[in-house]
Design a protein that fits this description.
The protein is an alpha/beta fold and 301 residues long. It has eleven helices and nine strands. Helix 5 packs across helix 6. It binds phosphoric acid mono(formamide)ester and norvaline (NVA). The site of phosphoric acid mono(formamide)ester (CP) has 9 residues, from helix 2.
Length: 301
């Protein structure tokens, strides 16, 4: 029984084997209809709870479909419909859920909620995004990079924009997978200080992306950010928009990624999102395959 809480808390060999498993499982499906089960059904008899305290399209659907392809059952729960949203403690929720289900995936606000869930659950807990990190996303992103370009170790990844939760998981992945990571963005939206060691910071976006193998961005206003900060954030982040000019400053065969949902023509232009460097749809698809491997690792099946 193993939790998947964050990339830096997970053994690098385990991370590597999850990426390998994800790629094998993807290729074994060989384009068959989405609703048909995999040849092996490692989650047969397993019940998985998917709890969402924030909106989701990709995480929700990819986990749901992935569990079912592996022969398991899911329950998609909204935090506000549970007693959790009405005063029951996280610890008590974790204890009770552990009597009904074999694994809990939770998307929540505070990291402390995730950690308390993991402390009190007697079944594995997966981090489906908190205000601080988004590890499942970056597992899919590493898988996507390697599908297109081979090993990510030693490559240069540049993040342009807000130093947010998705960036934090990229920073954790840089250490575990051995790639170079540069952050370019305004000082006011820097990543958390504990992430600064092991990354480069360059305030000039064109200089930062020079030699980049991969350019990544994300929304300028995350789900946990107050809407009142929207205009200020947009003003500060506009110089860091990923557009064709910025992509032209990276390596000619550089890839572009965005975890989605995107605000087209804010953090990235449609020309880049729909252009030749972009692998955003593969990235979204690979959430499914990467998470299937994470689920198997957590359950040891
Ligand atoms: N990228 C991602 O996690 O998307 P959702 O918010 O739609 O789950
Ligand atoms: N940084 C974004 C990611 C969404 C998948 C957010 O937290 O809203």
């Amino acid at each position: 029984m193993q939790h998947f809480l964050d990339i830096h808390k997970t053994d690098p060999d385990a991370l590597r084997s999850m990426i390998d498993t994800a790629r094998e499982m993807k290729s074994a499906r060989n384009g068959r209809p989405k609703g048909t089960p995999d040849d092996t059904r490692p989650l047969a008899g397993h019940m998985v709870a998917l709890i969402f305290e924030k909106p989701s399209t990709r995480t929700r659907i990819s986990f749901d479909v992935g569990v079912r392809q592996m022969g398991g059952e899911t329950m998609v729960l909204s935090g506000s419909d549970m007693q959790l949203g009405h005063g029951e403690t996280i610890a008590d929720t974790a204890r009770v859920l552990s009597r009904y289900v074999d694994l809990i995936m939770i998307r929540t606000f505070e990291e402390a909620t995730l950690l308390e869930m993991a402390d009190y659950a007697t079944v594995p807990v997966i981090n489906g995004l908190t205000n601080r990190t988004h590890p499942c996303q970056i597992m899919a992103d590493v898988m996507t990079y390697e599908e297109h370009r081979g090993g990510i170790a030693g490559r240069k990844v540049v993040w342009s924009g807000d130093g947010n939760n998705t960036f934090a998981s990229w920073a954790h992945a840089a250490g575990q997978f051995g790639f170079d990571l540069t952050f370019t963005g305004p000082e006011t939206l820097d990543p958390e200080p504990d992430l600064h060691s092991g990354i480069a910071i360059d305030r000039d976006p064109e200089r930062a992306v020079a030699g980049a193998d991969l350019v990544v961005t994300d929304t300028w206003v995350s789900m946990h950010d107050p809407q009142s900060a929207r205009e200020r954030r947009h003003n500060q982040l506009r110089p860091y928009q990923v557009n064709e000019e910025l992509m032209a400053a990276a390596k000619p065969d550089a890839l572009f990624m965005h975890c989605l949902p995107a605000h087209r023509d804010d953090e990235a232009t449609s020309a880049v999102m729909d252009g030749p460097h972009s692998v955003i749809w593969d990235e979204a698809e690979n959430r499914l395959h990467a998470q299937k491997a994470i689920l198997r690792w957590c359950l040891g099946v």
